[in-house]
Amino acid sequence: MIFRMQETKKHRLPVLAIDLGGTKIIAAIISNEGQVIAREYHLTLADEGVQPVINKIFSAVDHLLSLRNIGSSQLDSISIAAAGAINLEEGLITSSPNLPGWHDVPLRDIIEEKYGVKTFLINDANAAALGEHCFGAGKGVNNLIYLTVSTGIGGGIIINGELYSGSQGSAGEIGHMTIDTNGPRCNCGNIGCWEMLASGTAVAKEAIRRIRQGEESSLTEMVEGKIENITAEKVSKAAERGDSLALEVILKTATYLGVGLVNLVNIFNPEMIIIGGGMSKMGDLLLNPARQVVKERAFQISAQAVRIVPAQLGDDGGVLGAAAFAFQ
Amino acid sequence: MIFRMQETKKHRLPVLAIDLGGTKIIAAIISNEGQVIAREYHLTLADEGVQPVINKIFSAVDHLLSLRNIGSSQLDSISIAAAGAINLEEGLITSSPNLPGWHDVPLRDIIEEKYGVKTFLINDANAAALGEHCFGAGKGVNNLIYLTVSTGIGGGIIINGELYSGSQGSAGEIGHMTIDTNGPRCNCGNIGCWEMLASGTAVAKEAIRRIRQGEESSLTEMVEGKIENITAEKVSKAAERGDSLALEVILKTATYLGVGLVNLVNIFNPEMIIIGGGMSKMGDLLLNPARQVVKERAFQISAQAVRIVPAQLGDDGGVLGAAAFAFQ
Fold first, then answer.
1. Could you say which of B165, B190, B302 has the minimum Cβ distance to residue A298?
2. Domain A139-312 classified CATH 3.30.420.40?
3. ipTM, 2 decimals?
4. Distance (Å) from the C-alpha of residue A210 to the closest C-alpha of chain B?
5. What are the extents of the domains in chain B?
6. Exposure check for chain A: N or C terminus, fewer CB within 10 A?
7. Fold designation for B2-132+316-327
8. What is the model's pTM?
9. Which residue of A180, A189, A192 is in closest CB contact with B296?
């Protein structure tokens, strides 16, 4: 795919890509070779409501265009990666746990009408999958799964070099597979979802639970006794400094991460699984125990073949993926 | 795909297809329109060892050819669907729980050398998926999952109208996804696999467990007190006659079946899930509660879209699928 792009689309105009997340909006102008020509960040402030967020997208686009001194007609297209369930065909953000009030918002058409440029809208994890496939860790790898492990677990599936989005565009809700049928109910309505056990939220919750039960940890001091302020990031820092509770919590989470990875390896026999999102910053501390679970429990042929690697594009995964989607 | 076959391959020679299972061998001559021209069954008697089974395949092929009064040169190809892990590239049966002693048997080349005809070898559940897609319940459906629910749970994935077999040809081991991370260890090495909770084996085990604990059921009489002789088929019969223990066991299994279906619906957002194998003969008794779980727990867009239907090809699924694989 990347080859096709390089060979036949060399002189295409750039894409203006937007990554709309619950915390921040990233807007960037991206060449068809995956180069970020210009980029800017805004806080989403999602609680202000739908229209104020849309206005922030408008100003990000306007500002980027004026920075580069170009009009929207000098864009190939605009492409938005958004955190939430997307109706691909109709270009709607159907719902989003991180964007309160967003229900069936026709964001694609709103942007397209405002700027008079072909506009695309996809899910952010799907975008990041495509981004890593075209420009990152998965370059040249035709069958891969991308996971973003942060507050929750999102996913994107690349099959035969293309994003697989399912019959309604909602494939890839990998974080919502049951791995504990006797587990608690997830916000999504399902039971014992992977993301309840293997996400950043799970790390923080488990550390808080154990400390509240009276266990000792340097985390207590780190948050000045405000146990509820413990985050996955803080647990990770404590673990780096050798805190044994933090290390145990991460090992447990990594094992659960491995359980879900085994499922993906047995189902997809993928060449690669790429792990992005905040939790991936833990690196081998998280990935090695998860890889070990895959080695021990998955079908041997598939377990030996799969490479489980960290994402390479970091915060740019969403915009690069949105751009790749537009260029395809 | 089916259209391509009908339009451009109208005058192709037939395929001799073989379905090699743990219990029986089905051999059939199949036209490129999916018509079974001739068919015969043999008992596998797998315990006799590898060579005797291969000899049985030889005699099945020889007999079918002589029945039709043709030589192997009048075949398009020979295609084998086998119960077990397949090395697609090298044409090996890597291992098989139902074919004792079969380790890295180069069955494809053995047949190809014997008959001098291009020969194919694929996994039987993958074959059945392709068969249902080309000639059965999934005709015209481009994104579907096929499941065979019998002693275990096998699967096949059709994406964009083609069999998805993964990077080593071992994708589709759907029965071996963990749905109970605290569950017992499966023979495959994984823990709490779907097939341990939702297969025919699970039905029989659960009925036996409950009756041994002293619960009453007409099953006890049905097996003349030999509780260990209870099978899923017998539980199904007892349920049809209103036996409440049998009905409860099937409901529980159907619920677990639904749990795994939710995972597939959330991951793949497929148009259709086709359920074959012995357990599918229970029909709506099994499928309705499973459908209900999907409706309640899966992402709404995907849950509303997916059709969960019984397989149509029955015992011929394997040979028809093997033939479809060859014609592709």
1. B190
2. yes
3. 0.92
4. 20
5. 2-132+316-327, 138-311
6. C
7. Nucleotidyltransferase; domain 5 (3.30.420)
8. 0.92
9. A189
